[in-house]
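User: two proteins, same treatment. go.

Assistant:
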Amino acid sequence: MYREEEILEIINKEKVHFIKMYFTDIEGMFKSFTITPNHVKSALRDGIGFDGSSIKGFGKIEKSDFIAMPDRSTFKVLPKELNPSLDCLGAMMICDILNTDRTPFVGDPRYILKTKLKKLKDEKNWIFNVGPELEFYYFKNRKTPEIVNNCSYFDTSDSVMFLRQKTVDILLELGIPVELSHPEVGPGQQEIDVKYGPALQVADNCQIYKEVVKQTAESEGYYASFMPKPMFGKAGSGMHIHQSLFEGKKNIFFDKDGEYYLSETAKSYIAGVLKYAKEITGICNQHINSYKRLIPGYEAPVYISWSNSNRSALIRVPAYGGGSENGTRIEFRSPDPSCNPYLAFSVMLEAGMDGIENRLKVEEPLTENIYEYSGDKELQTLPCDLFESIQYMKQSDLVKEAIGEHVFSRFINLKERDWKEYSIQVTQFEIDTLFPLL
């Protein structure tokens, strides 16, 4: 945690000209405003008031005043490569949102996750570690999904490697650890994996990551998209989330004698996530387009199941952990990178902890390709569209508990509005197939 004096000293020494203050709305969109160095001291002490009436999920016109309170631990000097058109250096901080009486705002997604993690620490002395794998596409412009190349998974002739590497370099300069990067399955699709760590820090890193990816692409004349399914017939972009629970240096999920090296606690956690999978899908896959990715035939999971290594399962236990304690974790494969990471991490943790608290038993893992499954058991599936997802979520006491009444009700209202608007659109598919005939 930086002290106030350290931040002021860095700003003065590095000749920082502006400081961007970031926070997140309930759909996971990063919002920001900019202050000058002269206002940093007062901002650090008192926060900065703003009108939240135009921020999704925040206030209404009659009650819209909020305070953005910078979290000093998130202070970072921004590399010049992020703002090549500016002949000056900037910095950033992520803010917590307060009411005018300086109490935490219950609609702040970051506060929601912080509350869940504090409860976990206070009651169990556990830490929730996550490692997201965010996929995205590079396109030639933001108007149409025009591909930049035909490279696919791990191709060596990657024409945009320079752009991906520039992004990695900036992330590292910002102190965000990156484990690997590579071309993904789709043409021009990419993956840059941020190292696992405590959930709040990683959620912050996810938000910064997406900002860096998009700004870096734009600076080179490209457009980066985290849209779950930007092109028909091509691979969608996911955000597989590796997760584990630690007590100090002890991995609660690890058992050297357990099946797949999993403890009974880990299996109960898996059972909890599977039990509530339909209810939390609305948070982890929050857009209409999200469900164009969750279809059979691609690597995105559809069936509610778990397995070892099997990528067609909703939850898998990665085999490349090699039986090591630190490497043992589970991977939840349905979320996509358009989700709000603070809320997604919160509902996954709530579901998993419900499984642990109630000692739920997980069913036998499915080892075969589930898309070609021929067994006797009828497999449950994830919701097929946003409408179905919201129906499950509306009935979910678990999701309401995980994200609070304020966000729960506003999120549902937003998504119902999205579905209504979508439902009355006349699509190009209808024009192409029906207009010439009817």
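Protein 2:
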Amino acid sequence: MQIIHRAISTHIVNKAGFTTKQAKTGAVTIIQRFGSALNLNIHFHMLFLEGAISENPWGGTTFTRIKAPSHSDMVELVHTISQRIARYLEKAGFVERDMENSFLNLPIDDEDSLLHLQGVHPD
């Protein structure tokens, strides 16, 4: 979740014309554990401010609003997030990169091999 939050925050701050050291943005994340049929469906809802907050020369703060993301902005952001998550999973040893293909292979040794990714610790 931190990878996603950082990527979106950086995108918003940069679109506002700042660096992440000059300005920040805000977000609220809600973790939803069940779908509408009460089935297990863990997912996140993230709401971000539509701009960045920076300090102004008078000692206060200024909110700089950005335009809604275009389709190409969303494609670029999804690509950035997927690359960062893939890099993290590879570095953590959960997946191995297949150099002949652009996808990641997850070695499945037994039925408990995905539990670490789900945050479940087998007894």
